[in-house]
Amino acid sequence: MDFRLITGKVLISGEVIHGKYQGTFRQLISDTFYQDIKATGFHITTGYMIGNRTQVLLRWDNFDTNKRDYPNWLIGGINYWPTSITELQLNYIINTDNSEFKYHQVLVNAQIAF
Q1: d(CA 10, CA 7)
Q2: Which of 20, 30, 56, 92 is the most exposed, fewest CB within 10 Å of its CB?
Q3: How far apart are CA 30 and CA 23, in angstroms?
Q4: Over 60-71, what HEC string results?
Q5: What's the rounded Cα separation, in Å, for the pair 107 and 75?
Q6: What is the three-state SS of 30-51?
Q7: pLDDT digits (tens, 9 = 90+) for 36-82
Q8: pLDDT at 31
Q9: CA 32/CA 30 separation, integer angstroms
Q10: What is the largest CA-CA distance in the chain?
Q11: What does the pLDDT read at residue 76?
């Protein structure tokens, strides 16, 4: 289930997921076999347009399975559209389960529509 609300300069969006896999498969990274996986997760995002082409965002992201613990993330981001077909994204990610600075991440993404 997901939702998105854009009103004026404000964006609020979110998603909730839940799934179940019954069976066996081999994980590509190791020889571990998993069965009966249940996964749940969500994200809540809020954003604000600070100019005609610039948006700031804040997101809380969570995903868990009954087989592996994943970190919870707090993500701050900036989206910039230099032209109508290009977008630049800069995200700063904090692992809230282990928030030491050495575990922070910076992600940069560039997109071109065609």
Answers
A1: 5
A2: 30
A3: 17
A4: EEEEEECCCCCC
A5: 10
A6: CCCEEEEEEEEEEEEEEEEECC
A7: 788 899 999 999 999 999 999 999 999 888 877 788 999 999 999 99
A8: 57
A9: 5
A10: 51
A11: 97
Q: Where are the beta strands (DSSP E) in 1-114?
A: 2-7, 10-26, 33-49, 54-65, 73-83, 86-95, 105-112
What are the structure tokens assigned to 57, written together?
């965002």
What value does the mean pLDDT take over residues 87-92?
Answer: 97
pLDDT confidence bin for 112, thresholds 50/70/90: very high
Report the distance separating Cα 42 and Cα 19, nearest Å.
12
One-letter amino acid at 12 equals I
91 or 68: which leads in pLDDT = 91
